[in-house]
Amino acid sequence: MAITAPGVLSRPLADIGGTPITVAGLMLALAIVVISFTLSRIAVRLIARLRNRRNHGGAALYILEKLAGYGIAIVGVLFAFSTMGLNLSSLAVFAGAVGVGIGLGLQGVVKEFVSGIVLLFGRELRVGDFVELPTTPAVRGLVWEIGARATRVRTSDSLDVFVPNSRFIEERFTNWTLKGDTRRIHVAFNVASDADKAKVRDVVIAAAKELPFTLPDEGARRTQVWMTSFGDSGLNFELVVWPTLDAVKRPAAMQAAYMWAIDDALRAARIEVPFPQRELRIRSIFGREGDAALAALGHDTVPRKSPPSEPECPPSRNDAAHETVRPEELPPGRSGTGLRSERVGFSE
Q: Is the model's pLDDT at 338 over the cut of 80?
């Protein structure tokens, strides 16, 4: 007996909760799912383009993008079940049993997903922040993206480190740019013990202020030089300075730039940088002491004249300073002070 097309479409494939699932119902449900996922992608793209055009409110739009991507897809799936005539309440027992089994195996995945949602709505972490995690080795870099399972942190060397979302919820981390403001840094250096402290301070402060990413003195935010301790071979100091926010996000290059500038300044001012010293005392050699012992070793006992002073050291090229002020590579979701991204959905 021939089977017509309407007969094939109305033929039941299965029975769930007393409701027959037909070919037509299944095809309609699949079409609804495809359409809902397509609308989800379109909504995400539109919101991403809107974030590109705005300088403020990017964090709120980033959250809206994630919610739209998931919300439209979930509503579409539920509507697809409804069009097949399924009573969702009749699936509760089955879904509960399956959910327990899946939940035991996917505890970690669900935990990271929920942690990602908490991070999106929280204020402790946002895309574009510079964070530091006390791991071994320590992870420092820009928050590039908050995904469904992990947060992507990009280091100054363009290395992507994926940190589980729960780490930012359960463990301690440092957000260097939480308030969108700069921070004070300390650069350690030392000089000879007989150096003029006032001269050291003036020379180092002048060198620090010549770098383009050093902020001008304003109120309590001033460039200073502190003497921190007496070293074994000299005096230990710290340059205390307020750099720009962009420089703070490149800590390695920033520290190297200040150290290079300090070394150039101390050399130009003829301020000695001490090296570790050891004193060796010899009581006697072959039964001889003093000048006689030196003469036995072939050393001249007459003090030698100090060599002529070397010409002044010219300033050298500070590569780290150029690295610190180069144009910043913005993470997805940041455009200026706003957010920018063409990524779609809640990435893994």
A: no
